[in-house]
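Below is how a single chain appears once it has passed through the pipeline. First comes the sequence as given, then the structure the pipeline wrote out for it. We keep one example in the README because the format questions we get most often are answered faster by looking than by reading.
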Amino acid sequence: MSWWESSLLLRPRTSPASRGSCSMLPRPTPQSRRCPVASGRTDVGSTIVFVGGGPKTTGILLSLAASLRQDSSRGGPLDIHVIDPYRVGGGRIWRHEQSPTLWMNSVARDVTIFPDSDASLSAAPVTGPDLATWVAGEGREELERRGLGPDADRLTPTSFAPRQVQAAYLAWAFDRAIAHMPENVRVHVHRSTASRIVPSQGRRRVVLDGSAGEDEIIADVVVLAQGFIEIMDDPDTTAMKSAAERHGLTYIAPGYTADVDLSSLLPGQDVLVRGFGLAFVDAMMMLTEDRGGVFRGKGKETRYVPSGREPVLWVGSRRGVPYRSKLGYLPEGMRVGPTRYMTRDNAASLAEERDAGAEAALSVQDDIMPLVDMELFVAHYSELAYRHPERVDFDIEDVRDKGDEWCAVFLEGRTEDAAAARAAADEWARDRTPDPRDHYDLGTIDRPLRGMEFGSLTDVENTVAQHVRQDIDRAADPAWSQDSARFHALVGAYYVVRELVSQGVFSAEDRIQNFDAGFHGLFSYIASGPPPQRLENLLALHRAGLVRFLGPDTEVGLRHGRFETTAGSCPETVSAPSLFDARLARISAERAKDELLRDLIDRGELRLENSGGAAAKFLIDATNRALDASGAPQDNLLMVGPSVAGSVEEAFTRPGTDAHVFRDNERLAQRLLAAVQLESPAGVS
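Resulting structure:
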């Protein structure tokens, strides 16, 4: 049973309390409200410091430019300092200095850091092109200058751009934000790191590492925006490293793949790999094409010519298969639109039923997953009825009626009746859909090999290879457009749930176990998979004997001085002198490597979640002010990013979706301007 499936079984709901507004989950309003202000110094101008110059900072700067231009009374001098050892715009993750074989996993037309002109914002936004439009127009000269002209020549709106191209786009977006600042604003970029931030007479003294020739900056407010922070090893990783050293083995710990040193994986050497997601796909390319091998042909004809420098990768994971291929078509009129069941209103209705003393307003498994499941069910069968009516015996309204009937019962808290209605809807749809390949079953989508038993590794490898082949072919064929409908519905639902996460409506434990490791993982597997060509590369490497498949539920231990696999579905094992954990390290604020964050923790200026365990994040209030060890918000220290509970993690998104990230950026921009209390020119001495 998948992690989430228990949410669809009969489960008693928390007893309803008196119905009223839920303070943790306000109903949607037409535009964002302004946040409470904090005091700031205005006598000699104001200073904002961003520690981190990646996409999130760039997005906030775009919103700052828009807000400042809207309110002409904010005319006092403002200095903005951006500190990052990497080039601003992209920062460390989206830097130019990475392998050209590392691609984005969204097509170029689906990537933008700019809001649409009609976005629901209070200030007229600074708009700009999506990635595809930029490459074909204003970005061409910059790409040529960076030596990426051939990439620009090949790139179309439906291409998957190299991350180096995205790095150039984000750097250009940063420059565009600066160009739209009013004349009273000066932006300073420091290619350095901030090593310490200390209180200084009501302001903050930001100490640089000295490499940029400047030692410190006095700031009215500091924004910590370091993005994905590096994490110190957890106990399991430490133990594995120690064991590998004792036995003379090679172990490569989790990390951002572009930063991981893979040179210890030797030519011809067997390597066990745990993880079959995007980190593995990146490593696969770095260990093959980056080592001199060549892929020839396209599609099913793709073949690999080895350089002789490649290791042999034995890859396994919980699912035993790679993430689903990105779709190769877009049905006419299909887009990410408003959700029908996984909505903020429905979430608010469920939250109102919670006892006043409940730990959290909502539960991922009890409240969210049933709504997401019905969102996908209705999208799937509605698309079949609309575009392939000859394959079903119902129409769109029939499907929506089933979903609406279930939802009404579910929102009333009638758990037993809702479970029965959900099972009846499945039976109704399958009885009227003759081809089993057209049936919707989220459990099978999530775990396609579950329940299978294999007699040998040969059986495992043939099954995985066949699954990947079928996945590529189906993802390219609009005859299965219900997959695209599910994809778009899932993206829309994910946007809603991410917004709920940022509002703190889930407990820390629930968020970590059932969102971060659960729903987010499911979303990534279905909707954030690799480009189809990368899966063709995978199969070509498999045919060349350089990638081997271990199957589902793979575990690795030490035996007879080597790493060895164990898998419940196959009796055969594989041993090797090397093990590579191909994944990001789980976020853990308490294990942050960042010198600045460690100092702030040690001095009691940052507070961690109490119930998050080893995966706890930093705590902020509703206006992104960092909480100190006593739980008090700090007016002049703000935090954003993946390591911060309640922060909106996204930095760029799809065009035309009016994404929440833009409203969040505007809210943060207005919060910063309120914090420094800019005066009109006449009020500045």
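The chain has three domains: 46-102+116-127+171-230+588-683, 246-323+548-581, 326-527.

See the next section for the split statistics.
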